[in-house]
Amino acid sequence: MANSLTALIDHAILHPTMTEAELRSGCKLAANVSVASVCVKPYAVPSAVGFLEGSGVAVSTVVGFPHGANTVDTKMFETRTACQQGAQEIDMVINIAKAVEQDWGYLEDEIRAVVDTAHSFAAIVKVIFETDYISDDTLKIELCRISGRAGAEFVKTSTGFGFVKQPDGQLLSHGATEHDVRLMREHAGPHLQVKASGGIRSFADAQRMVELGATRLGTSATKAIAQGESDAGGGDDY
Question: Taking the chain, what is the end-to-end CA distance rounded to the nearest angstrom?
């Protein structure tokens, strides 16, 4: 396990109502606890770059978010624009319907197009499966394989916005599960890392995901995780 869980966090500032003031305070928190990156909505990339200047914290953003239904050309344009504005990491949502249909050629071409665009700016790519919608393990395993072939750096569980209608009519999103993180780590191969995202709300949640093989954690509960880490190690309060 890494010495610091907070160093593995992509601090998520992605809720539709997040304001510029909340972006500023979120970036300040992220810099104070030295997370890996702050993941922001695409229009917020320039602001986040400014807020995080000199902090050592990367700016990441989302492409095809949250449902992955954009065209390949649109995802490439989103990636190019984000990188030109200073994003160093791209979290792309796959075309979920194409995964359900098992159109692997389409998906490998799509992922490679985003990866090649990002790599031309020396940015890295995390491929979001949205595991709330893709329940079949064989599909997740194949997505790991094609993500690796397409040159991505990470495979990622969820957006945190994959709400599935339950029998009682409620919409629920489970996000990262122990089963999925374990499965993805087993099948991602040596050159792909795993990002667990969605539903990670405590130090214990984060610790467990890392134990299962995640090397990045997508969460908005960064303060709680940093506090839990501080309590465990006797460090500073946040």
Answer: 22
User: Cα(229)–Cα(73) distance, rounded to whole angstroms?
Assistant: 42
Looking at residue 2, its pLDDT comes to 44
Residue 139 amino acid letter: L
Could you tell me which residues are beta bridge partners of residue 165?
A: 171
| Segments forming the whole domain that contains residue 151 | 6-233
The answer to whether the beta carbons of residues 217 and 195 sit under 8 Å apart is yes
- Within 178-218, residue ranges assigned H as helices are 178-187, 203-211
Decide if 49 is inside a domain. yes
Please give the positions annotated as active site. 91, 156, 195
Examine the pLDDT at 173 and tell me if it is beyond 80. Answer: no
Domain at 60, CATH number: 3.20.20.70
pLDDT grade, residue 232 (50/70/90)? confident
Q: Is residue 1 part of a domain?
A: no
Strands 154-156 vs 164-165: parallel, antiparallel or unpaired: unpaired
Taking the model in full, what pTM does it have? 0.93
